[in-house]
Structure formats: structure tokens, C-alpha cells
Amino acid sequence: MEKYGSYYKLLDELRIAKGYTIADLCEGIISERTYLRQIKNGSKVNFTIFSRLLDRLDTGMGQFMTYMIHFDKSDTGVNRFAIRVHMYHFMDIGPIYELILKYKSDNKIETLMVEAFKLEFEYLINKITKDEFKIHYQVILESLKSLGTENLIVHLIKFIYHSYFKEDNIIDPKKFGQMLIDYNSNLSLFFYIMLMDKFLSFMTQKETIDFDIYEQILKKFEAYFIYINVKNYETSLETYHAFLYHVKHDYKMRDSYLYKALMNSLVIHSTYAHEAYKDLIRHGFNLDVDQFLIDYTLSIESSLLR
């Protein structure tokens, strides 16, 4: 259970938009007093109750998350900024970045997470060097140590650093993977899905992996995909399935999944994101991406002519 009272504020906006009274929404699920307390002071959220309230509004969790990320202009910008940095989607990030520069919170861990994504973004756009990125990020890690807290956001902050500076060995991939498998997500699933995606992407590019852990995390990633059903995650899902078939030497299935993923990438990714994605394929599959697309397209055309 984690503090996500701001979710209730957004839920209440949906309630008003759909013409429900508080009594109509809460009947048989939660007391009106508790509902109002959630909105006011951000009490702990029960995922089961929250899901039932969404059901009554005829709104799925995936729809709610999409609205929260892309359309809720009253938020602080944190989720919208994080998802764009994670997916290398920088086209409309400028105004959100300006919000982040002014961001303040009493929550120390959330503040450190925002700083982590800000540093990653500034490195990716060449505003800071890799050395500067590392030096500033190590300050964040030292601050985490002083807090002595371990939760999903802390794991996310650490893994972002590890993905760029794996030689520092700040995490054990096997233990980290097991943590992701054992984790019971509630409303932190936005960052849980993101962290699984980061981990699978990282492991796809390693020379040796724990196949069992990779497959178990992929199954959880696929199960949670329905909650944030966006094309970027669909591309990731296809890529990781392709990698499993690659490891199993089933190249026919690998190529089928990989071709779909690459075609998706060509459509949805920015130039920067597509080049980063091609690097992942080159490292993980040891393939020339452009030649693969040519060869597979020719094989499709050839099969149609038979």
C-alpha cells in the first residue's frame, strides 16, 4: 500500500464529468467520508476499492492511466515527463521540462526521482556530458542511502544509474530480477511497468542472461501491459518475445515478432528513439537491422507470389 491520494483527485474529476454524485459512486464500495478523506489528505489507496470505483464509472485502469499521463494538465508533470524520457519522446517535452525545473515536493524520494529523470533527459539531449551525468547522479544515490528506504521508486532510481554505468555494479541483476517477479503492484504500476521494461531492455543486450527470470518478468510485463496499452510498450513486448525465440534458436518466430516490432518503431518512434532501438537490436540479436528489414520484406513478397 502506497500514498497515491492524487489519484482520487483525478478520479473525482471523472466522477463530475460523468455526472455521478459522490453517494452514487461510493454506494456499497467505500464510505463517503473515507472517499473525501482520500481526496483531501492522500491517505493510503486500496487498489481493489479504487478499481471498483473505476468500474462504476465505466472506466478501465488503462483508460485512467492514459488520461493521467497525457491529458491531466493539472498535474505536476512528473508522470508525463518520466514516460517521455523513458520512451525518448521529446517532441512535446519542452513545456513539461519547464514544469519539472520548478517542481517542489515534501516527498524526498519523489524529488530524487524527478532529479534522476531530469539528469537522464539532459544527458540524452547532450546538455550535460556523461561524466557530469554520473557525478550528479551519484549525489542522488548518496541521498538515497541517507534515507534508508527501499521501495519501487528507489529501485527505479538505482536501475536508471545501473543501465548507464553497469561497471559500478550497484545492483545484482539476478536479485533485482527476482524482486520484480515477487513485487505485488498496486497503484505504483505506472512505474512498475516502466521498470520491467527498462530491466528487460537491459537484459536483452547482455551477453548472458538468466533465462528463467527473463521469461517470468516478460510474463508479468505482458499481464500488466493492458493497463498502459501504448504502442511503445507493444513494441517492447514484441521485441522481448522475439528475443526469447532468438535464445531458443527458433528464428522463424523470432523474425516474425521482430519484424512487427521494427515496423512499429518506424511509425511511432522519433528519429532518436528509433536509432536507440536499432542499437538494442544490434546488441541483443547481433543483426544488421536495415538488412534484416530488406531480407524479411523480400521473403514476404516472395511468399505472396507463390
Automatic annotation (TrEMBL):
Which InterPro entries does this UniProt record tie to the protein? Lambda_DNA-bd_dom_sf (IPR010982)
GO molecular function list: DNA binding
Q: What is this protein called?
A: Transcriptional regulator
Q: Which organism is it from?
A: Acholeplasma laidlawii
Give the taxonomic lineage as stored in the record: Bacteria, Bacillati, Mycoplasmatota, Mollicutes, Acholeplasmatales
